[in-house]
Amino acid sequence: MEQPKIGEEMQRMPYEPLLPVEKKLIGWSLGLGVVLMVILVFISYTYFPAGG
Hints:
Helices cover 67% and strands 0% of the residues. By secondary structure, it is mainly alpha-helical. It starts with 5 loop residues before the first helix and ends in a 5-residue tail after the last helix.
């Protein structure tokens, strides 16, 4: 028996928009990731400067 192709299966799926709570979670996750990256870069440059 042939395995169904993922692309074909995804085309058959009905479109489901994101719920407002899902959009909020995505936004918070991206925002938190950016803030933590900025903090990490700040700490890295402050406490571990490149030798030169």
